Amino acid sequence: MAANKTIIAFDLYGTLLSTGSIAKQLEGLVGSEQKASQIATAWRKYQLEYTWRLNSMGQFDTFFNVTRNSLSHALAESNAELRNEDIDVLMKAYDSLSTFPDVIPALTSLAANPDITAVVFSNGTQSMVSNSVFHSKDLSPHAGVFHDMVTVDSVKKYKPAPEVYFHLAEKMGKQQSQMGDMWLVSGNPFDIVGARSVGMKAAWVDRAGHGWQDAVMPELQPTVIGAGLDEITLPQAVSHAMELN
Ligand SMILES: *[C@@H]1O[C@H](CO)[C@@H](O)[C@H](O)[C@H]1NC(C)=O
Ligand SMILES: CC(=O)N[C@H]1CO[C@H](CO)[C@@H](O)[C@@H]1O
């Protein structure tokens, strides 16, 4: 990896790909919009909670399993039942997610920038992540922008465990003393704080426009904040932020 290149690692779900279509499909299965939205919110909450609990317990299960198991928890809590076939359909929906509207212009400008090495960096399993990238109608034509897809499978820990970000560094040919040469781009505040905590730069995509609220370690803040990916990955924005830091 050329030493002078800026490495930008993109989180996948919730950053490049929107999982909004899954809630829509859920609505078709459980019948009511309100119930679907309640289940989708609980599903996402347990999906995150399970990964953090597994980290705390020193246990690991694949992100595919975590996603499936957290769905059963969310369904049970709402007194909803789905047939196994329907659950398979929802899991399959991860293979046809749409990008957020700001993603493609940003990736197009990145593709034209030889000073940047872009990678996907996700806690999904290798097969889940490559299916999501290569089967997404929006994202697959741009898959060539990404030099690599780094996943946590081999680390057997989830973000924001420091090992996960060090694994990224290793894959990118960086030492732990060079974490500041790498950028994380994510829409997930816990991921941003995890990256800052090990010395990476981090760009937070604040699509909802709510502003930074996370205070787990108040001194750890995003390096830059953008309302969309296009604002963040413009070469000027990155180089400007690099000068500031
Ligand atoms: C995932 O779940 C399946 C089915 O319950 C199980 O057989 C498998 O061992 C799980 N994978 C891991 C890594 O625990
Ligand atoms: C806990 C955790 O890290 N969750 C993330 C796992 O990765 C997916 C895909 O990048 C994100 O959507 C989750 O937020």
TrEMBL record:
Hydrolase is among the record's keywords: yes
EC number, UniProt record: 3.8.1.2
Molecular function via GO: (S)-2-haloacid dehalogenase activity; phosphatase activity
Top EC category: hydrolase
Alphabetic keyword roster: Hydrolase
Keyword hit for Transferase: no
Family: Belongs to the HAD-like hydrolase superfamily. S-2-haloalkanoic acid dehalogenase family.
Protein name: (S)-2-haloacid dehalogenase
